[in-house]
Structure formats: structure tokens, C-alpha cells
């Protein structure tokens, strides 16, 4: 009797470890492909690696995501980032599509994104594929151009409604994207007229992809911008 009780306990333990393993080695529903607007990064940070930030949307990351748990998954069990697994040819392309605009160390940025996010989808995309696919998405969905074609271009004072910015992207990709904004830093709003004091900065555009990172789908998470607050595209 004592024996069977402890072997039952053992089985329960094995099962618990198994569940933990499956969860930490990554399970997800879809991908968020996040592009950022470097000038906003540079307004929020005191210092940027380049004196004049890039006027191009660049990659922040490709994030395997869970519909019911916005923070999950991350930092999964998997291979650590290894520079040599990304071909030199791809690396030179990533320097344009996926630069670190803040510290200037691109490799460190890629390492952080792989270890935090890429490890959670490693069974779908290995390191080379993860970076390759992200670069292709960036190439194929040129947010800078979509917005420029709709006459939405950076401006120091003009503000936009959320739908002004989302609509042309939606028309171009035929799916609903998500925008993410950041509050304007206090130092920027002090001397501004009241209408602009209450505004937010466009920071990121998120496109959503299916489990295999091949088919673009609607994003249905709530937007990362305040409702009814004008958006500045700096
Ligand atoms: C998403 O997260 C929930 C809650 O943590 C979890 O129960 C579910 O299994 C996760 N879904 C996937 C596909 O990993
Ligand atoms: C934007 O990216 C393209 C690569 O497609 C590059 O040729 C161009 O120089 C970039 N523009 C700026 C302002 O960085
Ligand atoms: C990185 O990958 C290369 C080639 O796949 C391999 O030879 C090397 O041992 C790896 N380095 C580490 C630290 O895992
Ligand atoms: C950049 O980051 C990589 C990865 O963390 C690191 O190995 C390298 O030393 C860094 N380079 C510089 C110039 O700091
Ligand atoms: C995206 O569009 C911008 C503006 O038209 C252009 O400068 C850039 O080269 C394009 N990038 C790619 C990857 O085609
Ligand atoms: C932007 O407009 C140009 C010129 O009309 C067109 O060739 C290009 O395909 C458009 N790009 C996008 C992404 O809609
Ligand atoms: C988003 O779509 C997925 C897949 O269709 C669904 O499971 C999920 O419940 C939706 N979430 C919200 C917040 O609508």
C-alpha cells in the first residue's frame, strides 16, 4: 500500500514536470510581428546611437503569442542565441531591417529577441528561419510606404486619429493591424499648446500571423494606444 502511494506520487510528479516542460518549451496561438518607428524610441530615450534616427519602420520582434494570456509565452527552454546560426548574408540585411536604434549593438538586440521570444516558437522556426522570416515580413509589408502613400508622414505638430493611421494599413494588407503608442514625455509637452499636450506618440505597428508565421491574420487584441487621444507621428 505504502509502495503504491509513493509510486502514485512519483507519477504525479513526472506528469507535473512534463506539463511544465511542454509549457516552457513554448506553446502559442499566433505571431505578432512588431515594427517600430525609431524616432519615437529616440524621443523616449535620452540617447540614441545615431544623431538622426532612421526614418524607416524597423523590426522590433516576431513574438509567438497566446490569445488568453498577453504576457505569455516568453523565455522558453530552447537553444541560446548563436550568431553563427544566422548567415553573414542575412546578418547584413538585418542591419537594415532590424537595427538596434538605441544602443547601436544590433547583435545584442537580436540575441535578446531570440532568447525571450524566438525560443518559444523554435519547433516552428529555427534561428535562421526566425530571422529570415522576420526580414521577409518587413520586406513584404512596408509600413513606411503604406503610410506615405496615404499622405501620413512624420510631422512635428500634426496629429492623427487612430483610425486615420489604421485604415490605410488595413486597406493595404486586408487585415486589421494593431497600433502601439507611448505617452509623450513631460519634457516635450511643457511648452505645447493645450491641444497637443494631451497626445501620444505612435511607436509600433503590429501585424498578426498564423501559427506557421505564413498567413497574415487579423489582430484582435486591444490597441496599445489610449482611446480618443490624438496621435503624433514624430
Ligand atoms: C495560453 O495561456 C493560458 C493561460 O496561461 C494556458 O492555459 C494556455 O494553454 C495557453 N495556450 C497556448 C496555446 O499555449
Ligand atoms: C529604409 O530602408 C531601405 C531598405 O529597404 C534603405 O534602402 C533606406 O536607405 C532606408 N531609409 C532610411 C532613411 O534609412
Ligand atoms: C554556435 O553554432 C556553431 C555552428 O552551428 C557551433 O559550431 C558552435 O559550437 C555554437 N556555439 C555555441 C556557444 O553554442
Ligand atoms: C554586442 O553584443 C554582443 C552580444 O551580446 C556581444 O557579444 C558583443 O560583445 C557586443 N559588442 C559590443 C561592441 O559591445
Ligand atoms: C519602404 O518604403 C520606403 C518609402 O517608400 C523606401 O524608402 C524603402 O526602400 C522601402 N523598403 C523596402 C524594404 O522596400
Ligand atoms: C505606393 O504608391 C506607389 C505609386 O503609386 C505604388 O507603386 C506602390 O505600389 C504603393 N505602395 C504601397 C505599399 O501601397
Ligand atoms: C481572437 O481570435 C481568436 C481566434 O479566432 C479567438 O480564439 C480569441 O478568443 C479572440 N480574442 C478576442 C479578444 O476577441
Automatic annotation (TrEMBL):
Residues of the signal peptide: 1-24
Purpose of the protein: Self-incompatibility (SI) is the inherited ability of a flowering plant to prevent self-fertilization by discriminating between self and non-self pollen during pollination. In many species, self-incompatibility is controlled by the single, multiallelic locus S.
Full protein name: S14-RNase
Organism: Prunus mume
Pfam families: Ribonuclease_T2 (PF00445)
Family the entry assigns: Belongs to the RNase T2 family.
Highest taxon listed in the record's lineage: Eukaryota
Any one GO MF annotation of this record: RNA binding
Single GO cellular component term: extracellular region
UniProt keyword list: Disulfide bond, Endonuclease, Glycoprotein, Hydrolase, Lyase, Nuclease, Signal
Gene Ontology terms: biological process: RNA catabolic process
InterPro entries: Ribonuclease_T2_eukaryotic (IPR033697), RNase_T2-like (IPR001568), RNase_T2-like_sf (IPR036430), RNase_T2_His_AS_1 (IPR018188), RNase_T2_His_AS_2 (IPR033130)
Catalytic site positions: 60, 113, 117
